[in-house]
Design a protein that fits this description.
Elements (H helix, E strand, L loop, with lengths): L5 E10 L2 E11 L4 E6 L5 H8 L7 E6 L2 E2 L9 E4 L13 H7 L12 H13 L15 H13 L5 E5 L7 H16 L3 E5 L12 E6 L2 E6 L18 H4 L10
Parallel strand pairs: 3-8, 3-9, 6-7, 7-8
Antiparallel strand pairs: 1-2, 1-4, 4-5, 9-10
Helix pairs in contact: 2-3, 2-4, 3-4, 4-5
Length: 253
Amino acid sequence: MTAPVISVRGATATLGSRPVLRGIDLAVHSGEVVALLGANGSGKSTAVRAVIGQVPLTGGAISLFGTEQKRFRQWARVGYVPQRTTAASGVPATIREVVTSGRLSRRPFGLLTRADRNAVDRAIGLVGLADRAKDAVCALSGGQHQRVLIARALASEPELLIMDEPMAGVDLASQEILAATLREQVAGGTSVLLVLHELGPLEPLIDRAVVLRDGCVVHDGPPPQAVGQHALPGHDHVHPHAAGEPLRTGLLT
């Protein structure tokens, strides 16, 4: 069998002196859409930050595309959408400039090619912002800014897309656009790991749900019918020192 796109085995992690992950196992297979659910503080965001190398493990192991994480170098295969922050919306750049930065993981040196520019145009179009490509990001609404972050991740044409609370604070119209965008990516074979506090319009796309509670996996299978019993609104507490760490993986923050 082909190795999982993501394999997390017995992962433990702490933020400060507080244990956050307590030996979790998690796998995402090729073409699969997995939702990571859990109440505020359950370890969801810490888990995905560990997958991309932003939070170091104190035990266990992580592999990406069958390669041990610390030896993995093909980060252009991974698109990452962090939790949206109001500070990031003040970046003095246009939509096209921000989305183009996502293409640099494929071409860190040299001029962009026509294929690069086409990929950027496609990503902007997918999130419904083609007519605003020259607008400043700071002029956008919260939902539109989230769409820019997703377009930036899609510009590298990733095989694996990791998204941390992509629907948080996003208006209904943007939620529907994001769901349609993700549906198209999944149809093209992209594997997806989503941190969610509710399934919402993404529910039809979810193949499996992994529910965390107090840093442990308490469910791994079909999405639970009573999601509210496991996944309460809110975001994980992130230790301030961890939040300020630069990504050591080559992914853009």
